[in-house]
UniProtKB/TrEMBL annotation:
Alphabetical keyword list: Cell membrane, Membrane, Transmembrane, Transmembrane helix, Transport
Any single GO CC term annotated in Swiss-Prot or TrEMBL for this entry: plasma membrane
Name this protein carries in UniProt: Multidrug export protein MepA
Subcellular location as annotated: Cell membrane
Any Pfam family the entry gives: MatE
Transmembrane segments: 61-84, 96-121, 141-162, 169-190, 196-216, 237-262, 282-301, 321-339, 359-378, 390-411, 423-440
Bilayer topology term: Multi-pass membrane protein
CDD domains: MATE_yoeA_like (cd13138)
Xref: PANTHER family: MULTIDRUG RESISTANCE PROTEIN YPNP-RELATED
Source species taxonomy: Bacteria, Bacillati, Bacillota, Clostridia, Lachnospirales
Amino acid sequence: MNKQKTNDMTVGNPVRLIIRFMIPMFLGNIFQQFYNIVDSIVAGQFIGVDALAAIGSTGSLMFFVTGWLNGLSSGFAIIVAQMFGAKKYDDMRHFVAMSIYLMFGFAVAMTIGFLVFNVPILRLMNSPADLMGDVAGYMGIIYAGLLVTAAYNTLAAFLRALGDSKSPLYFLIISAGINVVLDIVLIRFAGMGVEGCAYATVIAQGVSAICCLVYIKKKYPILHLEKKNFELRKGSMSKLLILGIPMGLQFSITAIGTIIVQSAVNIYGATYMAGFSAAGKIQNVIGMVAVSMGATIATYVGQNRGAGRMDRVKQGVKYSWIMLLVWSVVEMALVYFGGKYFTYLFISPSQTDVVQVSVIYFRTVFWAYPFLCTIFVFRNALQGMGYGMVPMLGGVFELVARTLIVVLVAGRTTFAGVCLADPMAWIAALIPLIPYYYYVMGKHMKAMRQ
């Protein structure tokens, strides 16, 4: 059997390893974002502003739902990475099996719960009555496909835990192409409306999951599971949940904050919803460098923590932070000077009111990108070391900051006031993260010297 070479990040130049792992992660994250972005582009160009507003308004809610699954799978994969770094392969396979049990259970429960409460949730978000049918139909199909979303996130996380960030990228490229074709066929030619976008997304994600499963079966004997791996051991699931739940909650708490902001934006009407949606998607794409670096740090730190190489952990975090601060300056320039032109991807330039909303958002938040990039460095470093509670606390600080801004300004001042919720949230998240990272790292380095 052809054995795939794993990527051991406990040896070699940290910067080279981080960059080599991060680039496929970045491209993979771009293609994962591509699903909802293509939905919005096709809907905005072929159906109109209302369709863009309908799909765009679901972005924060989708982040809440898929973020929980992504956080869980990422947390479980950190345990897998630590076992891999420690060369405890039998334990690693056991934790893979337990992760499968847990992810299946969470996905089924979420599917049932969100389908039942679909419309009530949208009402709480102040979704306009004239868009409710489209939004509810779109999200209902997304909820029905959560099992395939969970399957892809889990299998891709296992591959990344072993240092393979390239394979998930290749599978996402394939499924992204399928998503584009299906979007155009189902909307332009079959006339299915926004629900066609949702079907395209679920089918494409299913393809990604199947590709990952087949690839692991053929190329990764180290991940092949036996009956004994599925036997319950005392404390195994607890260990996974202790790290996975805080990471899932951290994603979800952040998403709740964005849902609150989205609810405030919805008050201003479809034009603001569409412009805010376009700006958010552009920001998500540009911000994928930081997201990908964060995921890379988690894997790098997890493997080196498992191997007891805290000196390498310290090096990797420092170099990653420097690289992301440099990138944040590039981000600032891109959105300040080019935000208007990026918006043309989603809506016709003749829709000047919608474009202006995007410009207002970018001009209000661009200065805070260094703070946002810093979050991904310290949050993921702590998670990679196995500390989940303080990163989750950072998410709570984000939520409180966003909520306060929305309560103070929504409906009482201009749209720009609502936009300030994001910068304030990013700054607030760092309040617990930075001090705790240096405290933990100081403790570990002192233990190494003794």
